[in-house]
Amino acid sequence: MLLSHLRAISKATFTKPLSLSSSSMASTEETLRKTLADKLSAVELQGNTVRSLKASSAPKPDIDAAVQALNALKLEKTSIEKSLQSLLSASDSREAFRQSVVNTLERRLFYIPSFKIYRGVAGLYDYGPPGCAVKSNVLSFWRQHFVLEENMLEVDCPCVTPEIVLKASGHVEKFTDLMVKDEKTGTCYRADHLLKDYCNEKLQKDLTLSSDKAAELKHVLAMLDDFSSQELGAKIKEYGITAPETKNPLSDPYPFNLMFQTSIGPSGLASGFMRPETAQGIFVNFKDLYYYNGNKLPFAAAQIGQAFRNEISPRQGLLRVREFTLAEIEHFVDPEDKSHPKYAEVADLEFFMFPREEQMSGQSAKRLRLGEAVSKGIVNNETLGYFIGRVYLFLTHLGIDKDRLRFRQHLANEMAHYAADCWDAEIECSYGWIECVGIADRSAYDLRAHSEKSGVALVAHEKFSEPKEVEKLVITPIKKELGLAFKGNQKKVVEALEAMNEKEALDLKAALESKGEVEFEVCTLGKTVTINKNMVTVHKEIRKEHQRVFTPSVIEPSFGIGRIIYCLFEHAFYTRASKAGDEQLNVFRFPALVAPIKCTVFPLVQNQKYEEVAKLISKSLTAAGISHKIDITGTSIGKRYARTDELGVPFAVTVDSTTSVTIRERDSKDQVRVDVENAASVIREVSEGQRTWEDVWATFPHHSSTAADE
Amino acid sequence: MLLSHLRAISKATFTKPLSLSSSSMASTEETLRKTLADKLSAVELQGNTVRSLKASSAPKPDIDAAVQALNALKLEKTSIEKSLQSLLSASDSREAFRQSVVNTLERRLFYIPSFKIYRGVAGLYDYGPPGCAVKSNVLSFWRQHFVLEENMLEVDCPCVTPEIVLKASGHVEKFTDLMVKDEKTGTCYRADHLLKDYCNEKLQKDLTLSSDKAAELKHVLAMLDDFSSQELGAKIKEYGITAPETKNPLSDPYPFNLMFQTSIGPSGLASGFMRPETAQGIFVNFKDLYYYNGNKLPFAAAQIGQAFRNEISPRQGLLRVREFTLAEIEHFVDPEDKSHPKYAEVADLEFFMFPREEQMSGQSAKRLRLGEAVSKGIVNNETLGYFIGRVYLFLTHLGIDKDRLRFRQHLANEMAHYAADCWDAEIECSYGWIECVGIADRSAYDLRAHSEKSGVALVAHEKFSEPKEVEKLVITPIKKELGLAFKGNQKKVVEALEAMNEKEALDLKAALESKGEVEFEVCTLGKTVTINKNMVTVHKEIRKEHQRVFTPSVIEPSFGIGRIIYCLFEHAFYTRASKAGDEQLNVFRFPALVAPIKCTVFPLVQNQKYEEVAKLISKSLTAAGISHKIDITGTSIGKRYARTDELGVPFAVTVDSTTSVTIRERDSKDQVRVDVENAASVIREVSEGQRTWEDVWATFPHHSSTAADE
């Protein structure tokens, strides 16, 4: 039952068939498959005709006409095959795009496969200098946008976690993926991956697939996440799937826990795990944090930190890794009041939302005003809506394309039974729609689980301004009578009577009053007993209460920082022809907020005076905390611009005199001329967002680059 | 041999006897112990005199006089005992101080024992909201002060590390502490801790300890870090030390590896560890980083991240933990040129340094000009000196008291054989002098180790502007002659000849030319053989070389962030009497740079108009990125100031009108009056260091607080 949450960040919905762009594609594909099947039968039929005409030695003109018709049919068939093939290989161009992004990222050390000189470890990556700077900028902005703006309580807990905590949260039992083993070599595979690969391969390569079979395979892909161990095993058997390398038979699927296990202390007896999420560190501290907040709700706690997931076979580069940075918020609210004071600030935002109903009825995501989605009850409550809006602002500020961002609501079967509502911010990239942020109303589940396991009450109090009179139903079993009637079973009967809810008790009371006795089921005895009116009294009592004690609900926005950054890389990447037109140059159009380096400073030619000016400007930039780089290599200015564009550096200062310099903007390639003494402050203002480039462009004289420049 | 580095951050020098404050204490103690011993013999002697007088029925006046003398001696003895006791219990007052700091830190959630509701795990701590903010400020400043100012290449590598990397670095073999087990219960203890506790207990509680014995125990404490397993075991036996709880006998000490072990992937076959330091991630990426830096030296790479150490029995709160944040720099230089272009900027700094020689001769740390220490060769080279200076600036900017900060040079026995020089920034706190930053010139060791293990050359190239003629010594063994003379031993003789260094070869050549033959030692044969001039030629050859290929040296400043923060807490803490004089109020005098919250905003009384002004100011502060808190509780302003002082908040804005507000500085308690619209920008300037409080104080009208205020 915890599964949906536990998988929240791990299972991107790569396999969901109903995405923005793929639904129309799907219907074209179906038509083509059907036409192809028809054409194949027509070819077969016509082939038979030709053969029987030949066998019966029919007149040559008849045979020729039949052969011509056959050839025409074959041509049509080939043409349909080609259309189908090109439709199915749309993913090839996505892969080509990805390859050029990834090549640039690796060549410029945005990231590096970890421990490369030792041939690496699957699913582990380093951020090299520019990647590390982007990550640090994203996290700083996260702190500003969420922690500071919302006055959240940020905490920092260890990764090493004792077993008891993760038993309470359900991870020890349920944080698993299904695995199969090559029965001869013992090599491990993720069961759903093998099935998925089989289906995709069939769908993409097998043109003779009937449209019924294609529909079946697509259904399997859509259901993958929901398959039980038995269902997965059955499908693997049915399709005759074997181990990819050896073709050996595979074991039945069995669960593999994804946590890295270790032991704490020297005895080897205290089992621990590397945390799979940061949230638990906040839940176990609820009591202290509530106190710190002056015993007031609502409040939010936040944590940024490493999380670990021992993937069976990591794929998809930076999207599915064994160690990653999470940024999580736990916003605690009174379950009876989920309004949010700042809700109005986001209610007018409009963006792509993909409610449950649209998914079920095969429609696409649609642009919705957030306020409408909340008021219509599509989004469960204001606080959830508020965070959806804030996440939208966060992602688009970073540079995520708003047309490739949608908020998808969890289907009923994806959501844990206790969850009130759940939305994922999904970003489209070359791998499909990727879940990057999960925003869930998890009700009181987590606090209750830790209360039970630890015995420490994780609750909030609402003090009434004056005591309230509360009507309480009091059930009083008369133990003497019950003892006489049930002897050794008395205790269980008493417990069953006391455990009745209000409705049951009132029904019992009414029945006793009208009939004098009643049949009463005692689960723990596994049978029904007869209760008469001497055995129990049920009455209402007025009590004075001074406070309400309750377990708060928690609304949890959880950010996969590495996934956001990878999608950002793809959305920011483009190529443009060099001035000479002889090569394609790579550019990352990072906003200054995110750019790893805000500015490059270079002397136009190697010259001591220019270098001194460059150093002067560099010194002012350092003092202002603006990251930058001096490039004094003798390469042509065009090459140096290209180098800096490929790192996504938004501005370049070129020193071509000792009194003024040019400032170039990366995407427009526009240049202005600014006095040396003002250069650093212009760069600072435009990098920190106090000033736009348009404003700079309107203020300073324009500089037209010479042919030599680019 | 790796031990010294591997222990670099783990082993604070708690036990070194020669600290600034303790050396004079030590001599007083010795005098007192000697005087006490003398006095005890005198008392015994006089007691005998009295007894013999009584036995011989001497005249009463004689007996009375003897008794009086005895009593006088006893009084003197008691007085000396008291002095010794109070000297030995100086640590009690340090502990009392620590207790009040720690109480405040825990009560205000600067930190929280992790998983407290599950009774915690030794050596794991959470940073609560103010602690987390302090940490984040310290790390931001670290990035600004080191990464940005020095243009370092920051990287971010995973914590999960495959075994081969840590085998190459030596951690798998040598990253151990010596452990003993209770032979009956199996409980584990750190062997050196037990011995240390025994010695300290004896020294502090046993007043009858002879000064020789005291000296011996102190010597043991000083040598603890250097004891072998056998030496530790022998001492434990000699002193009869048993298991603390059970008094059971203890096992012999044996090494326990301090890394948390896990396995990577589902097979259980790939062993991995949680990294014990971040440095290895940089070393394995050297080749890429060197390329990224345009194949130029010197350059520095930096990394901030979690590191793990499965301590046998963690003690000393935040100073000895199982998971901690490290910030490490690896500065790669040409071993033949360790100058630093910015060295002059730090050369005139003057601070406490504790060179090897002063430690060996029992002197104290002394104030030295850094430039002098480098020019006299006390500090090995300019780059090492530069980083010592930068670390000094970093720590003192954070608020570390410069009088409780010293740079201690490693003694020869503390340093790895390959290290050129090593200095620790040690900060004095209630636990003694704590190693918080290690600054080591590790020569080429780490890159060579990974080159060898991985087979990937981690080297730098210096291209000569024109080819250089290099004189090379060529040793040519004449195998035919050697074979005739030495038969089966020929190979070993050839190897020994080829392994000669330049001086040995030239000596051999000279001897052969003068005497015709020479006695030559072949280690691998364990004997000396006779070499004559037909058996080997030694001559010089001129070769043309186009570049120099070499393994760079690395200078490594490594920062234990948690330790720095804990020491900062102690240095910032003080108490002052409340205005009424009825209680002691706690204050942390954090610089604004470090303070968890820069400013509190409160309406003087609960009043809607004032609250609106407070919200307005809050909004401007948020926009400027200044962390702050609104406090609208109805408590007295004095109480609210006290609450904010205890969090180390440097400024408080009190709204007592709708046109102007007061701004109060924490330590002076001085207040100025500022217009509402200027309040936020004044707070921003004074928080970000563009303006000093002195300047604010000189600019705005002063506000004298009324009696009710504090």
From TrEMBL, chains A, B:
Keyword Ligase among UniProt keywords: yes
Segments forming domain Aminoacyl-transfer RNA synthetases class-II family profile: 236-591
Domain WHEP-TRS stretches: 35-91
Positions of transmembrane segments: none
Keywords: Aminoacyl-tRNA synthetase, ATP-binding, Cytoplasm, Ligase, Nucleotide-binding, Protein biosynthesis, Transferase
GO molecular function per UniProt: ATP binding; glycine-tRNA ligase activity; transferase activity
Predominant localisation class: cytoplasm
Pfam families: HGTP_anticodon (PF03129), tRNA-synt_2b (PF00587), WHEP-TRS (PF00458)
Reaction(s) catalysed (UniProt annotation): tRNA(Gly) + glycine + ATP = glycyl-tRNA(Gly) + AMP + diphosphate
Location within or outside the cell: Cytoplasm
InterPro entries: aa-tRNA-synt_IIb, aa-tRNA-synth_II, aa-tRNA-synth_II/BPL/LPL, Anticodon-bd, Anticodon-bd_dom_sf, Gly-tRNA_synthase/POLG2, GlyRS-like_core, tRNA-synt_gly
GO CC field: mitochondrion
Superkingdom assignment: Eukaryota
Record text on subunit structure and interactions: Homodimer.
Annotated family: Belongs to the class-II aminoacyl-tRNA synthetase family.
The protein, known as: glycine--tRNA ligase
Origin species: Vicia faba (Broad bean)
